[in-house]
């Protein structure tokens, strides 16, 4: 499909439902492991298999993680929350119901601020409806020849704690939806409440999308579509973009509006780069929610919530602000550092403090450090150069003991050899060159290059550049800036 | 010597005195079971070999001087609604025929820990839904007092095995009267403890907010012995109460009822459908207490008229959900489907529907349908939510009544044991059997059924005592006192 | 009240029960009668009454996030009507394409 170009004013309305797996060791209602990747059906017990007579017991840590997440998402944590059964039959749901939260979710009414993808000096506040705890279902593995052979069921994942975060339909572009997800992931990984690995299913996104079209002086809403099966943030973005075009064309063709059609579900096909209609169920869903009589309500006293609040520490948005003002770095640079997560922030801060120059530290982070990480597929946590060593190196640059080019050599040497800046400097034979040596070197160069001297006298000061390379060859430790200044002075003084 | 299979207390004494071994007792129980089963069919599973093995171990431990549990060497039968590692757990349903649980219910584990010898699993109404044990898919159980009559239900098998002299103790479960009504029909003492007093872990759920496991025995003394073993906090059941359990033996001994305020439920005595002989038994019980010095006060439970309708909304709603897990996917009965059925609705849906249709009996299906209806969109508020609100009113009635009285006295059942087949065609008629018992389940309070005499035909009658939450001890005191003053509990059927 | 055959069938589908025509014919009137019976609850004014979902006055029953032993694959699959070496086998949602 081509780009959307239309004489109509079209607004895209996007709401997201994000399921994040909380980082507990055990499941929400039993003490089986939540570890990803175990052989099928090796992490089950009577409770998560839904065997007769088994009963659920809440995992307290899941409650704690949900509270922390809710607070970080500016939610209200109501004093009372409870559990409800959502009832439907499916082979990956062995009890015939999912324990979830219906009318009293653990988190209500929050928001998340994101950088406006259309204008990075601007922030957008995305309001959240709620976030509730629920248990995950198991995994159904359908045969390639669908419909011929049996479906295989693995219940390892069944009962894993999920927090379902529901936004208002407040996003207005695919890029914004993606920015929301990136910021959410950053926040949750920062808090350590979730790994947010889409590949492993620890973060799953459904997007509700429709269009508000300004036509004939009135606003028309297209039918809402829920998009599923997106396996990366990029897929989310592309699926929404696709759906926007599809809905517009569909509206042009059929004139169908939200009144004509109930919400439908469409799946995203990554290979085909298209959404496709999913088969409608034979019956309309009636989940018959009711309070789970096996579980007691959870009452959260103010003090407990305040204690959780106190453990949150500085959140990414605040860190961005602080890095900018404390280290005098640009918003963009602060963003890049913060978006890499807590380890990167810590690395930067140590480097900047040691170097005594935030801007220089930031510049080195953005270029040298991040490039090396990318090239070698390292994590900042295992980066071979400790932040304090990089800081010391940059301090030397600041003090004029090294030029940037030399410092890069040192950096490279430190990367490849287990040594600090001093050791690298010594190993590379870098020694400070005193003023007398530089003068001797410059005099020699000027005598050997009368042409250059003439050019400089004639006003072409940049001709001196030719001498700098020669100076470097004769003495690699010579500071180019110093060579340049000394040569110019000697020529002036005649 | 003859072995007193009707008294756990006596069997414990004889073993301690070295006059009987656990194996002798167990063998006697197994022989008695073999003799009576053809007439009453009370077991869904008999564990003869395992029982003898368990008894041998008790005897070995005893001769080695090892510490023994409080039920060492006592044969006990458990209702087939409790999960057992070494016996099938079927809930008397085709759905779970041959199903083996990989774990023991907490109460079963506690029985084993206490040295009890498990002799088998007892028949019941399918998934505990019924009042006559006739909804069982495992056959009909007869009442030892008259095998042409029902032993009651749903714990009919558990009552029948004790009444038949198979073993002195059994465990039942009570969601709306399922321990107390069979106890009354079989002249036993049967107690439904406070909701949360006994762990539900491993009790196959019928209606989770009402279900409770409890003891059945001839006497209050024996019932208290069993209650002691099964009571107490269980971290595996979120609805189990973290409250200390008193030593009930001292309550059995304390039988002075002077000053005890006994609240008489006059309304229930005027209840339409209450048979005169039952009424007479209650009035006689009042006299027994009065002459022993108890204070008799009249109390009323204004919403008692709404107990049964409230119960028949809440219980089916919870049941419809609890029984969703039986779909033939992971365990239990799976129906074979034809190609045509597979083509019509898809193989999965066809398998679900057919497995549940064939696996469940009519009463279970009726209640699943009722509950599904009452929870569905548009009906939730009118039925389920309404019932929850009335439930609070009912609880409020009890709270008010217990401000005036220490225990409440009234009938257990409207009649004595009815004939097999008499009420099977009319579900509503069957539901009305729960008229006097469901209040305690809705309110979550403890209640006990005590033997209270016989009809002219020689059928047992019972009376019910109810107490405030966690006051099982009061029921035991008042019940033991009653049994000290009467001999109803000492009568035995001539089976 | 009355329940039509279609009502009963719709309910049966929701409850995943495949009822025969005979069962539908019996169940409809029975359910209707029971519903009429429970209908008497509507006589009561419960406007101001809090619903009571449990007889317990207890909250916050939970357990620490500590691993317990899980079942082995064979224990987990022991009662499965159909299984392979590691999974439960269930019929597929959709039948063979016609
Ligand atoms: Mg969800
Ligand atoms: Zn588990």
Task: Outline the structure in words.
The complex is a heterotrimer of chains A (494), B (495) and C (98). Chain A has helices at 60-72, 174-191, 233-254, 302-311, 316-327, 331-339, 342-355, 358-376, 387-398, 404-416, 421-427, 435-448, 450-457, 465-474, 480-493; strands spanning 9-21, 58-59, 80-81, 84-87, 97-100, 107-108, 111-115, 123-135, 139-141, 151-154, 161-167, 203-215, 218-221, 225-228, 264-269, 274-277, 290-291, 298-299. With 494 residues, chain A is an alpha+beta fold. Chain A has three domains: 9-303, no CATH class; 319-428, no CATH class; 435-493, Arc Repressor Mutant, subunit A (Orthogonal Bundle), CATH 1.10.10. In chain A, the strands form four sheets. In chain A, strands 1, 6, 7, 8, 11, 12, 13, 14, 15 and 16 form a ten-stranded mixed beta sheet that branches. Chain B has a domain at 8-254: Alpha-Beta Complex (Amidase signature (AS) enzymes), CATH 3.90.1300.10. Chain B has 18 helices and eleven strands. Chain B has an eleven-stranded mixed beta sheet with strand order 1-3-2-4-6-5-10-11-9-7-8, sandwiched between helices. Chain C is mainly α. Chain C has a domain at 5-41: Glu-tRNAGln amidotransferase C subunit, N-terminal domain (Histone, subunit A, Orthogonal Bundle). Helices cover 34% and strands 5% of the residues of chain C. The radius of gyration of chain C is 23 Å and the shape is flat. Classes of the chains: A alpha+beta (494), B alpha/beta (495), C mainly alpha (98). Chains B and C meet through helix 11, helix 13, helix 14, helix 15 and helix 16 of B and helix 1, helix 2 and strand 1 of C. The structure holds magnesium ion and zinc ion (ZN).
